[in-house]
Amino acid sequence: LLQLVNSLQSKLEIGSPLASLYLLGLPDHYVSHTFVDFWWQTFIGAVQADINEDSLSRRMEEKVVLRADQEKLYGTSYVDHYRFRPEEYENLTLYEWIQTSGIRKIPQPRKKKDTVNE
């Protein structure tokens, strides 16, 4: 019972350094690098499917992002991003590609409003 009370009490209290960081809108910890989520099994499944073309039933399910483009719907995945990368990045290994590549949204151009001066 004492451990339960201590556990609950420690979650209710925060120290003054953490409170000041929160009030200033700063992160509560600092690191010199960022971490990249990566799932090896997806790439291993793609390589195995390419080697054993007749064993499509063994291929792992792959998460894809569905995108719509001018009435067309297509799926993309991290494997496709590496497999169909531009020619200038052909010399990058998979490890280097994961470290250096990133996905970001291209902003849509804003439509200008026609204003009529009366």
The pLDDT mean sits at 76
Poorly predicted regions: none
Give, in spatial order, the strands making up the sheet with the most strands.
1-2
Distance between the termini: 77 Å
Overview of this protein structure:
A hairpin with a 2-residue loop joins β1 (65-69) and β2. The chain has a domain at 40-100. The radius of gyration is 24 Å and the shape is extended. It has helices at residues 2-12, 16-24, 40-51, 78-83, 94-100, and strands at residues 65-69, 72-76. The chain contains five helices and two strands. The mean pLDDT is 76. The chain has 118 residues and is mostly helical.
Summarize this entry quickly:
The protein is mostly helical and 118 residues long.
Give keywords:
8% strand; 118 residues; 5 helices; two-stranded antiparallel ribbon; extended; 2 strands; mainly alpha
Topology:
Blueprint: H1 2-12, H2 16-24, H3 40-51, E1 65-69, E2 72-76, H4 78-83, H5 94-100
Antiparallel strand pairs: 1-2
